[in-house]
Amino acid sequence: MKRPIYLDYNATTPIHRSVAEAMGSVLEDTFGNPSSGHAYGRAAAALVSTARQRVAKLLGCDADEVIFTGGGTESNNLAILGIAQARRDRGNHLVTSVVEHPAVEQVMAHLEGRGFRVTRVAVDPQGRVDPQDVADALTPETTLVSVMHANNEVGTIMPLAELAAHCQHRGVAVHTDAAQSVGKIPTVVHDLGVDLLSVAGHKLYAPKGVGALYVRRGIRLTRLMHGADHEGGLRPGTENVLGIVGLGQAAALAAQDLERHAEHQRALRDRLFQAIVTGLPADSVRLNGHPTQRLPNTLNLGFGGLHAAALLEAMPEVAASAGAACHTGDGHTSSVLGAMGIEAADAAGAVRFSTGRGLTEAQVDHAAAHIVAAVRALTT
To answer: Which pTM was predicted?
Structure first.
């Protein structure tokens, strides 16, 4: 059977060939423990150091501000729990948005169950947080604001720099889950004004099971795990050299052609959108998310009167998601779309398409034809 056309790059990305090649050399030649003082250990440590420098270059920070983790979820947990506990003597109030990924929202809910107070700031109909709403939510007890850089479902990009400026004046730390934005749009930490930023390797053509956390120098976190003093004392355990090398290579790849890659994704995304809206009645397709302040690869469409699961089943030639991949199949309407004020009946028919490296115009055209045909078959 011919494989379906992959339009779910926001869920995960394939490992890039150059990343696989870099990891292959580690499998064949470098097995030492990076903490060992002999030649085998030093060779592994040098690879970890190079990868750290590459991630730091992509983020615009110093290498010693990059902590390697087991993925985006771990990075979010370390950032949020680490700050909340380290600053508990200063206050117990946290601020976030209503459209966060579960890897942030569930951490906030966990802290609520342990005596912390969490304010969830609303978003507008296009999925953006108003920085003034964040500023208004701050209190003398606020220690952390955590707002994602770009939404995983609709792609809307948050006004982080403006939001962070309000927090800096109040001495409040700012964390952002940048799993969806790193490698797609600029994520220079000083331009964003953030103190902590989470990276997920498998969202930028690195393997699953590896990530990173930017921690601005001077920010103190309470460690979540206990053991040896790896990763600046914040992440004990022998480093995942194989995954770290893969993440470093993916970061180097992203840094060298970020703008060109973004334009490629945008062109294919817009080509897909135009083909779909041209092939269907004007009132049958709804664009969810901000029309311009949006990830270049993300297209969330609502098909009125249809259920996303039925539509995906009717077009097996296309691999896409009903909302976020981590929610697909759970039977619930997207909380993100609900927070944007989209009616449940309309939200139920929303499908997320996301483009990426390796995708071609021909594949996009074929996918659009299958999508249009499936929608027509289900509505006639």
So the answer is: 0.96
Q: State how far the alpha carbon of 92 is from the alpha carbons of 8, 80, 114, 221, 325, in Å.
A: 38, 12, 10, 15, 32
Per-residue b or e along 154-163, where b marks 16 or more CB atoms closer than 10 Å to that residue's CB: bbbbbebeeb
Contacts with 75 (C-beta within 8 Å, 6 or more apart), sequence order: 67, 69, 198, 199, 200, 211, 212, 213
Q: How far is residue 272's CA from residue 364's CA, in Å, rounded to a whole number?
A: 6
Cα gap 9→180, rounded to integer Å = 10
Average pLDDT, the chain: 95
Report the candidate in 61, 71, 81, 68 with the shortest Cα–Cα distance to residue 217: 61
Active site residue 326: yes
In degrees and rounded to multiples of 5, residue 321 shows phi and psi of -130, 150
5-6/318-319 β-pairing: parallel
Domains of the chain: 5-14+258-379 (3.90.1150.10), 17-256 (3.40.640.10)
How open is the CA angle 92-95-99, to the nearest 5 degrees? 140
Instruction: Considering the candidates 137, 267, 326, 378, report the single residue annotated as catalytic.
Output: 326
Compute the half-sphere exposure of residue 228: CA atoms within 13 Å on the CB side of its CA: 7
The band of 317, judged by pLDDT with boundaries at 50, 70 and 90, is: very high
